[in-house]
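Inputs:
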Amino acid sequence: MDVRYVNPFMGAIKNVFKTMLKLDVQFGKPYLKTVEQTSHDVSGIIGLSGDVVGTVIVSFPRLSAVKIASTFAGTALGDTDEDFSDAIGELANMIAGNAKKDIEGLNISITTPSVVVGAGHQVKCAKIIPHLAIPCSCPAGSFVVEVGIKTVNRSEELLLVGGATEKSA
Amino acid sequence: MKIMLVDDSRTIRNIEKNVLAQLGYTDICEAGDGVEALKLTASQIPDLFLVDWNMPNMDGLTLIKNIRAQNIQVPIIMVTTEAEKSRVIEALKAGVNNYVVKPFTAETLSDKIHQTLAKLGVAV
């Protein structure tokens, strides 16, 4: 994946957490994902289309997800509450939306979010789009943002979108 | 003053409701997408809309075009992650009066509501 896409996402993660949750985020060293399994138990997923194809996955351990969703919503949430997945999805939406404005020269659209809850779940994406994982930590817990973006021409896009699926364990 | 919140995220609608309550606005109605908002508008037109862009069934831009096509001229503030200049211009052309980019602070949303209502001569 083109590394020039990483900084907009790091900036967006910091901005979203600072503005909406009043939390500072620190980053570990980004690394290339080599397996399909997501990093944790709860994932907010946003699809990217337009001049690119790809996926943004914001993935949390369960306890971090509960603390972060509760802080965002301003009320205590459990991982079975309807508002829990709503909050996780909206965080993913804000991160993807905020990042895309800083990716210059490309017209990018984002999907409405999907949320998967369950240990060991898989999010299967097109194999030809490498995903970079950005480890994040904040006072409410740790999480990982996985970003896979590839610019495409229209004929490539049709092939790629046809090959992307999501699967919950 | 009746205010309609249109956003597919209940979390965001609750955050908006809290800001509006601090400003003294408690007559709120809510819709999770553009279709639901149009149905509600058919029975009662609010005095102010806060509208998200990306929603299922009918997005915010389509909703705003529908509202303006019905010659409903009440103020509309778009509250969205869509931050590119081209999107802001598109929304303004469709008829929004003000624009708030997510993520937002309570102060930003509050200021934009005040600005919008003051510019249109609505008592705040």
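Chain B has five helices and five strands. Flag for discussion at group meeting.
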